[in-house]
Amino acid sequence: MIKRFRTLNQTNLFPLIAIAILLRLNTFIQRPAQLSFDFVEPFAKLLIPIPLEDTLSSSTNMFLALLFTIIQGLIINKIINTYNIIGKPTSLPALLFITLSSLFPQFVILSPPLLCNFLLIWIIGKLLNIYQSLEVRFIMFDIGMIIAFGTLIYFPFIAILPILWVSLLILRPFVWREWIMGIIGFLVIFFFLGVFYFWNDSLDRFYQIWLPLTTTTFNTNFHINMYDYLVLLPVMIILLIGIFQLQQNFFRSAIQIRKAFQLFFFLLLLELLSFHLKSNFHIYHFLLCVPTASILASYFFLNEKRRWLYESLYFVLIGFIICLQLF
After folding, report:
1. Up-side HSE of residue 248: CA atoms within 13 Å toward CB?
2. Mean pLDDT calculated for residue range 169-194
3. Confidence of residue 59 (pLDDT cuts 50, 70, 90)
4. Which of 66, 198, 211, 217 is most exposed, with minimal Cβ within 10 Å?
5. pTM given for the model
6. String of DSSP letters for 119-172
7. pLDDT at 42
8. Hey, CA dihedral for 109, 205, 196, 200, is it positive or negative?
9. Distance of alpha carbon 110 from the chain centroid
């Protein structure tokens, strides 16, 4: 299975779709009659007062989630191959993205983090473009605006904001104009949102948007059952071996690749910690970690020489995913 995806081939699209359907099939069969979908944060619903949460049937909801996941996998695959991040053209980023996006039953339905992954993949593409660009002020401005749009959809997305300065620190010499352009792009969106609240005599509600940022206690309002830990086990093994391989090959890699993986590490850390900003926390939050985790996992599967190891680890992973759906 993995050996087929280690090379880039257009015919890989069909097994990709088949794997995506297989990993979601049991959840689709056992789907509830109705699935609610909060497509934006409550503070953004003043802009879109139309109640869309319960307009989709559960089958439509899950079909759209499947379609969006496949599209996202293909986009991130193209970005990684364009910048040659993991060594050679391959279909592994798409395969691992689709696989990790099916990790939990909560991942396979429409959710705000699923929509935000479109924006996150867009940000990854722009961040990788920074290293090769002579002028990056407008790129930083665009990334700031994208993060602001993502925050309207899902507030914890704001935790990605420090990646603006982390990327400049890793990829560029210090230019103060570049360091302020990202936050200006972010503030432009919320300036217009604040004006809209002011026009509607709701400025007090606008201030409430930022209350999660003042929380000092760490959010422990989530529970992961034993089966969830089991399905995370092969993922952790894959990522740990991938990180070890990166360490071994770090100084033999091109400078751009080294800097890109440093950037991915900080991005993954921000994505993991951002659940603290959501009081009513759901496990689908960790969909935000899938783009960067799939890149790191792809590095392992492409560079591992022992076929029995990478093939068996992948089959264990998809086996655990299917078992989790059954139990």
Report:
1. 10
2. 89
3. confident
4. 217
5. 0.91
6. HHHHHHHHHHHHTT-S--HHHHHHHHHHHHHHHHH-GGGGGGTTHHHHHHHHHS
7. 64
8. positive
9. 14
